[in-house]
């Protein structure tokens, strides 16, 4: 991995060449001086070594209002947009080698618009929600495979039918209910993290096979029944009292982790409810419960050990491979 070169926008003409050690560039503007994006782009396009830059970052202090500068980078793969002055993504058409974009302008810049996001063939995106139109813009992204969406309002998955999403992360969402994910035919992996207002799942969610739910304390776990084809499920940190049999019959479920949840284990024949179950971990189970369930359910690994999932690293591992390391 190469180094990141910081370029002060107000002095961009001081840059003579880009050394071989650098593959990333960040635009900052400590002086707050406005910069002509066309002049900046024309200049950068002629800087020696510009072809080795694969990652562009627009710092929160940048005075750029759009992404016209992108056309100066012929081999750009990744963009991170934090700029408080960004108003549009004009220039995305020049991001034809693009694979990933992060847009995180925070609450200080909710006026920015991302309607042009579909002009580049991006495969992965991390987006901090700012306005309802953001969700419509996502619906036009016909190359997008993976999306991490932060602080979103209610979602209408029917708007995303054309998006080839396989993996969706919903972080700190503001919605009370979530459902009908099956309208996105390719979507199979989900992460629902820190959505404190979420109370229930609704509709048809039968295409999801792997899911992590963390920090959703209000969620009614009985509504997990809408995920009829779930194979691997982790729920971490849910205080609602629920009996295991109330979760419903999930016939495809192989791995179930209920960590720091208020779950009453009220069944002995696990295979009756979860016919393909191979692994069950419920952190509040006592040793005698674990032993009894293990003896009564041959072929199922039963555990009551306390395991706290913290941070995205373990969450991603859980979704991308085995639920245990």
UniProtKB/TrEMBL annotation:
Gene3D superfamilies: Ribonuclease Inhibitor (3.80.10.10). This is Leucine-rich repeat domain-containing protein.
């Amino acid at each position: 991995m190469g180094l990141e070169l910081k370029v002060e926008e107000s002095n961009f003409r001081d840059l003579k060449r880009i050394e071989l050690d650098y593959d990333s560039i960040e635009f900052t503007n400590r002086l707050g001086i406005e910069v002509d994006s066309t002049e900046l782009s024309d200049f950068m396009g002629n800087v020696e070594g510009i072809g080795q830059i694969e990652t562009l970052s627009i710092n929160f202090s940048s005075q750029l209002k759009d992404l016209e500068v992108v056309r100066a980078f012929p081999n750009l793969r990744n963009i991170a947009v934090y700029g408080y002055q960004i108003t549009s993504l004009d220039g995305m058409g020049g991001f034809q080698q693009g694979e990933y974009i992060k847009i995180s302008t925070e609450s200080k810049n909710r006026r920015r618009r991302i309607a042009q996001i579909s002009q580049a063939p991006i495969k992965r995106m991390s987006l901090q929600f700012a306005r309802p139109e953001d969700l419509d813009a996502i619906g036009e992204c016909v190359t997008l495979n993976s999306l991490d969406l932060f602080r979103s309002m209610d979602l209408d998955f029917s708007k995303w039918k054309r998006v080839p999403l396989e993996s969706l992360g919903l972080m700190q969402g503001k919605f009370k209910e979530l459902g009908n994910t099956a309208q996105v035919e390719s979507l199979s992996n989900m992460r629902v993290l820190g959505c404190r207002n979420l109370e229930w799942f609704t509709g048809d969610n039968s295409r999801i096979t792997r899911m992590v739910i963390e920090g959703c304390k209000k969620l009614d776990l009985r509504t997990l029944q809408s995920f009829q084809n779930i194979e691997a499920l982790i729920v971490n940190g849910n205080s609602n009292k629920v009996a295991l049999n109330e979760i419903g019959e999930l016939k495809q479920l192989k791995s179930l982790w209920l960590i720091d949840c208020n779950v009453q284990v009220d069944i002995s024949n696990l295979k009756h409810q979860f016919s393909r179950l191979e692994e069950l971990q419920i952190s509040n189970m006592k040793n005698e419960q674990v032993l009894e369930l293990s003896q009564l359910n041959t072929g199922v690994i039963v555990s009551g050990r306390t395991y706290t999932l913290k941070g995205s690293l373990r969450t991603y591992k859980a979704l991308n491979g085995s639920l245990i390391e």
